[in-house]
Each structure stands twice: as structure tokens, then as C-alpha cells.
Design goal:
About 35% of the residues lie in helices and about 15% in strands. The chain is built from 15 helices and 13 strands. Helix 1 packs antiparallel against helix 3, helix 6 runs antiparallel to helix 12 and helix 12 packs parallel to helix 14. It is globular and about 60 Å long.
Length: about 425
């Protein structure tokens, strides 16, 4: 791991004070036992303070910090993006606790890996209080959603074998106060159970390697038997058979579940996690659903294939990633191809579909990406109350509720830095 400590001669002018801040952070309790996040922070701050911040990119960080091979594909391995999210949260925690009195703060803007050092704004002095007025004793409010947050995070962690750090810390940037809030309010209710169903990454891997699709009926009929048979049907059977009965999922799905469990709308909801292989048809019919992954990774989305026009390709035989448009409208293509094999620039696609549930009373949210970068772009689009909030206002009914819709998104990554998701096509659904 090519990292080194900084010396005065290697710093850009006037950067010594910022480096002392970095050293304090790395020595803090918040980072003392977080070796990977500490290495990440040290690396990007070192490069930035040496004047190389503009050259920081996802691929180089993956190689230098996380030991990835030089030709790895960031679109298919989101370790840098996932840890960047955790690092932002951990820095926020530090500056609100141990570092609350520091003169400087460090920000890592979304879509970038270059740290920004800013002087902390000085708080205005409180006006003097009249002698006969005493300040009211602060009230300590409980957090009714905290247990739910921990339960959702812990359930998915158990399925994937991954520990989600900082699940106890609430972050102000995930409250979704924009138009997304209405979608969450319709999905998360006290009267109706909501099931979060992450992708079955093992299933996707086996189908991709064998280039043989598995239908929902086959998946439901003899899930474990069919997977084992499919895994053993070609070269390298021992490797695939060994993992065929394991439950793995994507880090992007884990991150989405982590954020959903912390939304204000989820506090009083009956939010539960179901791994795709454990979900039953009865549960799917009588619950609100959040389905992660395309048909190859989550066959349950096939239940809604006749309700949407944009769908990820479910035929792994050609090994390509694209989105089909069943009934193209003015200006739309019949097929959109993802470009994830390029050099420094690649494009990922994703579909967001908010549709009626199977029994007509519930709702289902489908999030399908051609790769993890596409899935993350779709998740960010729904969680970020920025530009996407204005776009989602197109689907607001007169009574303020959200109508059903589907959106086709593209996220471009240039030199390791992901752009904001761009809407390629959309439509309102019944």
C-alpha cells in the first residue's frame, strides 16, 4: 500500500495546519479501530495536501488503498464508493463529537474523492438574557426509529455476512424532505408490512457464468436443487456448487437498506428484510415490496414485467448489459446499452419503477441496475433531496400523493468520479 507520512517539504504552501487536523482525526477514538477508513482518509488527504487532489479517482484508490488489481472494473466492484459513504458518515460523527471544537473540518463532496478543508463557521454569540429569565432545561428525546434501524441493518448483515459500521449514528442528509418523502410514506405504513428484498447475487453469478436464465417458477419450485444443478452443469462445477447454497448480496443493496431503515417514514413502519430465496408468494401478495436487482439477480421482479416498459435484459447468454423498452415512445430507443468495459469513462444504466402491488392495494418499488454503479445511482436518485426531488414532482397527484411511474437512468463515471444520474426516459403508470 503506497502510503507515506507527510513532511513539511512535501506539503503545498499553508497546508501544515490541515495536516495536523488529519493526524488528530487518525488518532481519535472514532478512527482508532477503523483501519481501512483511516487508510482511505490518510491517502486522499496526503494526495490533496501534496497538490494532487485533482488526480484522485476511484480506480487509483481501489489499487493503492484496497489492493485491487490495476485492471479491475469499478463499475463491478464498488468497494471505494461504499467506503467513501462510510467515511463521510464517520467524519460527520467525529466533527460532532471529539472534533466539535476543531477550527477546521473536512468534507468529501458526493461524486468526488478529493477532500475539502474548510474553516468551521463561528457560531454567533447568544444575546444576553434578562436577569429574571432562566433557560428551560433541555428535553432529551428518545429515538423510536433507532431499534428499527439496528434491526434492519443487522438482518441484512446476517444474510450477507457483512458488518455495517455506524448504524447507530443518524445523519441529516438522509431525511429525504423532498418529493421522495411521499413515496416513502406510501411504502412505509403502520398498517401494512414492507419487505425489503435484496438481490440474490449468487443466483446472478451462476446464471451469468452458465449463461442460462432461470425463470421465477423454476426459482420458486426447487430453488436450492435448481441452483445446485445449474451450478454443476458446466466447467468449474465445484466452485459454483460450493456457493450455490450461500446467501450473498450486493454492498449497494446493503447500503440502501441501511439508509431506508434510518428514514423518518420508517420509524413506525413494519419494515422487514427477506432474502429472495426465503420470500413466499403469500408474503409478496400481501406486503409492500422493495425489490433490489434485475430479473437475473432477483426473479421476483418478473411478477411486474407486464406493468412496466423499461426492463433489464434477463437473458445472460450474450454477456451484455442493456435495458429493453417494450413500447418506445417519441425519441426513445428500443434498447439502451450500458458501457462498462471502456477505459476511463463508462456508463451504467438503472431502472426505477414504482408500481401497484400484487393485490392492488400495496405498492412495489423496483430498483434495477446493470451493475453496482447503476444500482447506486438509482438509490442516490431516490435518497438525495436535490435535483431529483424537482423531477419527481412530475408524478405528484392533486391530493399530494405520488402516482406510479418508471424512470430510466444513466450514470457516467469519468476517471473514477461518478456523475449525477441523468434521466434518459420516464413515464407515468396507472
Amino acid at each position: 500500500m503506497p502510503q507515506q507520512d507527510l513532511h513539511p517539504g512535501t506539503l503545498v504552501e499553508s497546508a501544515h495546519e490541515q495536516w495536523e487536523l488529519v493526524r488528530d482525526i487518525l488518532a481519535s477514538r472514532s478512527f482508532a479501530k477503523a483501519a481501512r477508513l483511516s487508510s482511505f482518509l490518510k491517502y486522499i488527504c496526503t494526495e490533496a495536501l501534496k497538490g494532487n487532489g485533482a488526480d484522485l479517482n476511484e480506480r487509483q484508490i481501489g489499487v493503492d488503498v484496497f489492493g485491487r488489481h490495476s485492471d479491475y472494473l469499478p463499475a463491478e466492484d464498488s468497494i471505494v464508493r461504499a467506503n467513501a459513504r462510510l467515511l463521510r458518515t464517520r467524519l460527520e460523527l467525529y466533527f460532532s463529537t471529539e472534533g466539535k471544537d476543531s477550527e477546521w473540518i473536512i468534507l468529501i463532496p458526493k461524486g468526488s474523492y478529493t477532500p475539502v478543508f474548510e474553516r468551521r463557521p463561528k457560531e454567533a454569540a447568544a444575546p444576553p438574557m434578562p436577569p429574571d429569565i432562566r433557560p428551560e432545561k433541555p428535553k432529551v428525546l428518545g429515538s423510536p426509529g433507532m431499534r428499527l434501524t439496528l434491526a434492519v441493518a443487522a438482518a441484512i448483515v446476517a444474510a450477507a455476512g457483512i458488518i455495517l459500521a455506524l448504524r447507530y449514528h443518524r445523519s441529516p442528509d438522509i431525511s429525504s424532505p423532498g418529493r421522495q418523502a411521499q413515496i416513502w410514506s406510501q411504502l412505509f405504513t403502520a398498517k401494512r408490512r414492507t419487505l425489503f428484498v435484496p438481490a440474490d447475487s449468487t443466483l446472478s453469478l451462476i446464471q451469468t457464468e452458465r449463461r442460462i436464465p432461470l425463470t421465477l417458477s423454476e426459482y420458486l419450485g426447487q430453488r436450492h436443487t435448481n441452483l445446485a444443478t445449474l451450478a454443476a452443469s458446466g466447467p468449474l462445477p465445484e466452485t459454483l456448487v460450493h456457493i450455490s447454497d450461500h446467501q450473498y448480496t450486493s454492498i449497494a443493496d446493503l447500503d440502501m437498506a441501511f439508509h431506508l431503515g434510518r428514514l423518518p417514514q420508517a420509524r413506525a413502519a413494519q419494515l422487514e428484510v427477506r432474502y429472495a430465496r426465503d420470500l413466499t408468494m403469500s408474503e409478496a401478495r400481501h406486503s409492500n415490496l422493495i425489490l433490489m436487482g434485475g430479473p437475473r439477480a432477483n426473479p421476483w421482479v418478473q411478477l411486474f414485467a407486464d406493468r412496466i416498459d423499461y426492463s433489464l435484459d434477463d437473458q445472460p447468454a450474450d454477456g451484455l448489459d442493456y435495458v429493453n423498452v417494450r413500447s418506445p415512445r417519441g425519441g426513445e430507443l428500443a434498447r439502451y446499452m450500458a458501457d462498462v468495459k471502456g477505459g476511463e469513462t463508462y456508463a451504467s444504466l438503472a431502472v426505477i419503477a414504482f408500481v401497484a402491488g400484487l393485490d392492488g392495494e400495496d405498492h412495489a418499488l423496483l430498483l434495477e441496475g446493470t451493475d453496482m454503479a447503476g444500482t447506486e445511482g438509482a438509490c442516490d436518485f431516490l435518497l438525495d433531496a436535490g435535483p431529483s426531488s424537482g423531477f419527481l414532482s412530475k408524478f405528484t397527484r392533486p391530493d399530494g400523493s405520488a402516482s406510479h411511474f418508471e424512470i430510466l437512468l444513466e450514470t457516467k463515471t469519468v476517471k473514477g468520479n461518478a456523475s449525477e444520474p441523468v434521466v434518459l426516459a420516464y413515464r407515468t403508470l396507472p
